[in-house]
Every structure is written in structure tokens, then in C-alpha cells.
Structure to design on (350 residues):
């Protein structure tokens, strides 16, 4: 089961625009290494889960993986071959809104080489361009 | 560890002037403390980045001002690539200061060999020490950490004259049994569709559809 909120105020959200860069959630906080988004986009719950599984399969209970994003936004769509109108479509999936700079995943307790390989596997699954980052001391 | 940094006085302040400076390869800075008026400065980015790379907390400022200063705050751009501003606090060698020092794990953990995960919960610790005796890092010795064991702040070997500001019972490192696959996700997931706040569920137990 992919991630989704437990309780929401409204089932459907407006699409909105992703403006500006991330000013929060843009530092490696929990682990030692991270995967940072360089582009804006929506990260579907299924993609977040696919990335988590890919990382866990590589780590094999050695290090720790932290998922830093959560899909708060419901994405609706109208079924195929449906005439326009008749209201907004039904929620299709849930997605996290990603601003450039957002840290998507973090890894701790492994060497830098292992973290690079692990996050490279993850990066292939991401719908936005990402880069490898390290924790800063200052 | 103390490095020296060449600084230049700046007269023009504000966002636009700061951006102009950054385009010229300079980083805006400010120096304050000791009840003396603050001084607006700038430093060459390459020199500042060298100081950051060395992990220096106390630096000797040269050029426009001649004083030793603590790197109080460092601001980075969105991607954490370029420093955009730095705050210096005037300190003398005997001043007692509060500074965050990274924690480094030392030794091979026997609990890890037994199948546990070594989890560093506190990445840096706030210390109170004299300005001339700021340690580069604090070592947490994990060579005797068994599966299910903890290292707390009180167990850390701090340098003479320094005191931890953090709670003595705070956990620094733990060696825990790994979670089974999917445990963390199961806790975070709800049902098929989320519950609607402020809406009563219908007889079938399904949340009511939103009115058009």
C-alpha cells in the first residue's frame, strides 16, 4: 500500500503552481547522505515507495533510510473517452510537491561509496533531476 | 583549530548590494559582540570556503578588523552549495562560548556484527568551552556497544574544561534490532481513501463524497 494521509479536510486539491526553491527540508538532517531534487515536480506515492524498496533491497538492513517527503496532495483525473464537464475527476493517486532543493531521501550508517550506489539506484526512479548531497558540519 | 581570514569593510548594505558582492565572488559578513558596534564586512568566497572545509569555529580576522571571532551562523543557498552570509561573534581566548561540535563514531561495534543497526541519533553536541579550546569533533566509542545498547551524553569523553549543554540522559548512539520490511510504511498508511475531517461516515462506513 502506497503512502497517503490518514485524514484530510478535502478529497480533491487544486493543481497549483510550483514556484521558487525549497527553503525548508533542503538540508540533510537525519542521515549522513541525501538525494536532493534539482527540479520542481510531483512525486507520486507509488514512486516514493518504489524508491524506498530499491534502497532497502540494496541496504539489506545495514544502514538506515529516511524518506523525507510525504504525498499530501491528491491528484485527480477524468477517465478516458469521457466528455468534458460534469465536474472534477476522481482522486487517482497521491503525490508530494517537490520544489528544487528538497531532500527526498537520506541514508545513514553506511559508507559514502555504498550510499552513492544506493542513491544512484533510487535516482533512476525519480521523475525529477536529483543529485547526491552530504551532511554539512556548519 | 584557528584559521585566519582576510576581510574587507563594506559600506553599502542591503539585499541588492549583497547580491552585487556575491556576483564579484565575495560573501557578505557581519561582526558583532562584546558590546561594541557591529561592523559590516565581506570575505572572498574561496578563502571562506577553505575555512569552512577546515572546520574552524574560531577564526582570526585580518584586514579591515583585527580580532578573533567565532563563526556564529553560516547561511547557505537553497542547494547548500554556496555560502551567502556569515555571522562572526567577537571572542577572546578566555571567553566561555557555546558551540556545536560534530560527533564521530570510533571503533567497531560488536552489536552491529550481531545483526544490529548502529544509529547515530545526535549528530552534533552543544558544548560550553573556552574559545581557544573548541574541539574539532567528539568521539563516541562504540567498541563496547552491544545489541540493544545505548551511549548517552553522560558517557561521552569530553575534553577537559568543556561541558555538554544537552541533557545528560539524551541518547547519542544506539544499536537496535532492524525493523522488519514494511513496518515503517504500515504505520504511515491509512485505508483505501483517507477519512474526511468534519464529515460523518455513511452507513456502509465509507466517507461521504464531497458535494459539488
Amino acid at each position: 500500500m502506497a503512502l497517503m494521509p490518514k485524514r484530510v479536510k478535502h478529497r480533491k486539491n487544486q493543481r497549483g503552481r510550483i514556484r521558487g526553491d525549497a527553503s525548508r527540508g533542503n538540508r540533510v538532517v537525519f542521515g549522513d547522505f541525501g538525494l536532493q531534487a534539482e527540479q520542481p515536480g510531483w512525486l507520486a506515492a507509488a514512486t516514493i515507495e518504489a524508491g524506498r524498496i530499491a534502497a532497502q533491497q540494496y541496504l539489506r538492513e545495514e544502514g538506515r533510510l529516511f524518506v523525507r517527503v510525504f504525498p499530501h496532495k491528491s491528484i485527480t483525473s477524468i477517465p478516458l473517452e469521457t466528455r468534458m464537464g460534469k465536474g472534477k475527476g476522481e482522486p487517482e493517486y497521491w503525490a508530494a510537491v517537490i520544489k528544487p532543493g528538497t531532500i527526498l531521501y537520506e541514508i545513514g550508517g553506511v559508507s559514502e561509496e555504498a550510499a552513492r550506489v544506493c542513491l544512484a539506484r533510487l535516482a533512476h526512479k525519480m521523475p525529477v533531476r536529483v543529485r547526491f548531497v552530504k551532511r554539512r558540519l556548519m | 583549530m584557528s584559521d585566519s581570514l582576510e576581510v574587507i569593510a563594506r559600506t553599502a548594505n542591503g539585499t541588492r548590494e549583497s547580491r552585487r558582492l556575491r556576483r564579484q565572488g565575495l560573501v557578505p559578513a557581519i561582526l558583532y559582540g562584546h558590546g561594541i558596534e557591529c561592523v559590516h564586512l565581506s570575505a572572498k568566497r574561496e578563502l571562506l570556503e577553505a575555512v569552512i572545509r577546515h572546520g574552524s569555529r574560531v577564526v582570526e580576522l585580518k584586514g579591515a578588523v583585527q580580532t578573533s571571532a567565532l563563526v556564529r551562523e553560516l547561511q547557505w543557498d537553497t542547494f547548500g552549495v554556496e555560502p551567502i552570509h556569515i555571522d562572526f561573534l567577537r571572542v577572546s581566548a578566555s571567553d566561555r562560548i557555546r558551540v556545536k561540535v560534530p560527533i564521530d563514531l570510533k571503533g567497531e561495534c560488536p552489536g552491529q556484527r550481531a545483526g544490529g543497526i548502529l544509529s547515530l541519533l545526535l549528530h552534533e553536541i552543544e558544548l560550553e568551552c573556552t574559545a581557544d579550546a573548541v574541539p574539532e569533533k567528539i568521539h563516541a566509542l562504540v567498541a563496547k556497544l552491544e545489541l540493544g545498547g545505548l551511549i548517552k551524553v553522560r558517557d561521552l569523553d569530553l575534553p577537559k574544561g568543556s561541558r555538554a549543554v544537552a541533557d545528560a540522559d539524551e541518547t547519542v548512539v544506539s544499536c537496535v534490532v532492524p525493523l522488519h520490511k514494511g513496518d515503517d510504511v504500515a504505520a504511515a498508511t491509512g485505508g483505501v481513501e483517507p477519512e474526511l475531517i468534519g464529515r460523518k461516515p455513511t452507513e456502509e462506513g465509507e466517507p461521504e463524497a464531497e458535494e459539488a
About this structure: The radius of gyration of chain B is 25 Å.
